[in-house]
Design brief:
By secondary structure, the protein is an alpha/beta fold. Helices cover about 45% and strands about 10% of the residues. It has a single domain, classed as Phosphoenolpyruvate-binding domains (TIM Barrel, Alpha-Beta Barrel). The chain is built from 13 helices and 8 strands.
Length: about 300
């Protein structure tokens, strides 16, 4: 937290500049603040805070159980740990349009650079699952208008996500997206497209920035950055990737310890203490208190 240098306003300006430069920008999902700092260290353009990941981190399914306060808390924790712009999933806005406006204000106060809200009913479902239900277009238009009216900083980006493709088909989904743009949405998030041609159709229909969701094991083929650039997309998110990587390796490691009785065979798969301390920037914190980093970390396996 103490080594970040940019204000929330500066990070919002950075996101606005990215959306205007005609390039594709990569926003991996961060499952905690430490992961957000790693994303920054690796040179990505921004950080995404997934509602599905936050719910999973609380050991909850992604069906709208996690509440507004929990989302705000996690968003604040992540946003203040990085100089990259971060935007967050706020599901359906946590209530009626007035609640969506309040949610936007809270996320802005928490230091986020933007948020996306969707046109599902509550309780919502993960965007790549079957059986979703959506509200009528006018209700979502009201949500978007309320969200736009709720922000104080015009650079806070309002993203409208549509889950209508799976319910009404692509043509009606595109009509909805156009209405959300007319209501003031700064960017559109077409969820669960089934083919590259569908992504292309959305891009051709809209003249605002568009976000692509490259989540694993979903409805969409995992397009690479070159493909997304050629399609004219502006932002790509990898919402659950880091959590899946971490949990997959944690599961394999726990199995190894259970079988072998120790961690000796999996040390090379772990983040070394030295690298963790470097990521945490112990030395920079030491400027405040010379007693914090008065030790050396060995490279031997016992560390």
């Amino acid at each position: 937290m103490l080594f970040t240098k940019k204000t929330p306003a500066q990070k919002r300006e950075a996101l606005r500049a990215q959306l205007a430069d005609g390039k594709l920008h990569q926003f991996p999902g961060a499952f905690n603040p430490l992961c957000a700092q790693l994303i920054e260290r690796k040179g990505y353009d921004g950080v995404y805070v997934s509602g599905a990941v936050m719910a999973a981190d609380l050991c909850l399914p992604d069906i709208g159980i996690a509440n507004q306060e929990e989302f705000v808390t996690r968003g604040r924790q992540i946003a203040r740990a990085t100089d990259l712009p971060a935007f967050i999933d706020v599901d359906t806005g946590f209530g009626e349009p007035m609640s969506a406006a309040r949610t936007v204000r809270l996320m802005e106060e928490a230091g986020l650079a933007g948020c996306h809200l969707e046109d599902q009913v509550m309780p919502k479902r993960c965007g790549h699952l079957d059986g979703k239900e959506i509200v009528d277009a006018e209700t979502m238009v009201q949500r978007v208008r309320a969200a736009v009216d709720g922000r104080l900083d015009d650079n806070f980006v309002i993203i409208a996500r549509s889950d209508a493709r799976a319910v009404e088909g692509l043509d009606k989904a595109i009509d909805r997206m156009k209405a959300y743009v007319d209501a003031g949405a700064d960017m559109i998030f077409p969820e669960a497209m089934k083919s590259e041609k569908e992504f292309e159709a959305v891009r051709e229909a809209l003249d605002v920035p568009i976000l692509a969701n490259m989540t694993e094991f979903g409805k969409s083929r995992l397009l690479n950055t070159k493909e997304l650039e050629d399609l004219g997309f502006n932002v790509v998110i990898y919402p659950v990737t880091t959590l899946r990587l971490a949990m997959g390796e944690a599961e394999r490691g726990l199995d190894h310890i259970k079988e072998h009785g120790d961690q000796n065979g999996i040390l090379d798969r772990m983040q070394h203490r030295r690298d963790l301390y470097d990521l945490l920037r112990y030395e920079e914190y030491n400027r405040f208190d010379q007693s914090l980093y008065n030790f050396e970390v060995s490279d031997t396996p016992t560390e």
